[in-house]
Design a protein that fits this description.
The protein has about 150 residues and is an all-alpha fold. Helix content is about 65%, strand content about 0%. It is built from 5 helices and no strands. Helix 3 runs antiparallel to helix 4 and helix 4 packs antiparallel against helix 5.
Length: about 150
Amino acid sequence: MSVRRIGRALPRWATGLIIIVGCGIGLAACSGGGVSLARSACVHIDRSISLYKQASSESGAARSAELMQQAYIQLQDALPLAARAAGKDAQWQALMTTVSENSRVPESALISALTDQCVVAKQSSPFQPLPPSSIPPPATAPAPATVPGNSSTG
């Protein structure tokens, strides 16, 4: 192979390498496992909770109803993002399910769960286990009692 042929092939080879590396970086950025989608859903959820709390403290019925409607719309905007996150990673199924309950359950009953789920999404590494819970573990069943002198080998 002559130097001239190598000189012509080098730019094509370098271009091909740049394209391959660029595609690899692009694919790596897209493989967030749904975390970025869950975080985007949580932006809407946070807005919704803020609007809901503002509506709850509002004295005027019309303004309160308007804020409640805006809070509802924010949760509806969060739903497709949470669904896509759950589709990429099953860890976000709970977030999607909780958001989807908004049409059947009052937001006041969902705020605690939504807040906790968004705390997980906002962590720098949401796949790490959560800190210990203050909820005690379930009670265990006592061991079966044995009766002295009772033998099944008899």
